[in-house]
């Protein structure tokens, strides 16, 4: 159940970013759901490998290079998902920043496991 909620929240985050960032387009909620799933798969495979390989550069840039990696992952996902389009790298970069912030807010608002038990 938790996985499905996170998936839906990721799709909502993509729709918010598409509304705010010019050059970042999502045609429908279904396209956002598919894009969220593809982004998750790409980040779990290729993104993980790239983050491990570029870790020294990430340390030198104080973590900013991870935003570049996330922007690349968004662009790769947009190549595979019909209805999800990123027109420029700047849009992907801004989208990666905003997606990180939105996901952080969603995670912060999520009830903690200890609070749900009691």
What this model shows, in words?
The structure is a single chain. The chain has six helices and two strands. Helix 1 (2-20) crosses helix 2 and helix 2 (29-53) crosses helix 4 (64-80). It has one domain. The protein has helices at residues 2-20, 29-53, 55-60, 64-80, 89-109, 113-117, and strands at residues 24-26, 84-86. It starts with a helix and ends with a helix. With 118 residues, the protein is mainly α. The protein has a two-stranded antiparallel sheet. Helices cover 79% and strands 5% of the residues.
Helix content: over 70%
Class computed from helices, strands and strand pairing: mainly alpha
Low-confidence stretches: none
Q: What kind of sheet is the major sheet?
A: 2 strands, antiparallel
Task: Tally the helices.
Answer: 6
First CA to last CA: what distance?
19 Å
The portion of residues forming beta strands comes to 5-15%
List the helices and strands and how they pair.
Blueprint: H1 2-20, E1 24-26, H2 29-53, H3 55-60, H4 64-80, E2 84-86, H5 89-109, H6 113-117
Helix pairs in contact: 1-2, 1-5, 2-4, 4-5
Structure described in brief:
This protein has 6 helices and 2 strands; from the N terminus they run αβαααβαα. With 118 residues, it is mainly alpha-helical. It is globular.
Summary keywords:
mainly alpha; two-stranded antiparallel ribbon; 2 strands; 5% strand
């Amino acid at each position: 159940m938790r996985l499905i909620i996170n998936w839906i929240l990721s799709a909502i985050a993509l729709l918010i970013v598409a509304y705010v960032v010019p050059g970042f387009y999502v045609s429908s909620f279904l396209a956002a759901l598919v894009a969220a799933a593809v982004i998750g798969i790409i980040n779990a495979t290729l993104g993980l490998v790239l983050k491990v390989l570029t870790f020294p550069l990430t340390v030198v840039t104080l973590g900013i290079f991870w935003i570049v990696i996330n922007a690349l992952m968004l662009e790769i996902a947009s190549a595979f998902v019909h209805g999800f389009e990123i027109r420029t790298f700047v849009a992907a970069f801004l989208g990666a920043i905003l997606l990180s912030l939105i996901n952080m807010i969603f995670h912060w608002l999520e009830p903690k496991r200890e609070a749900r038990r009691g």
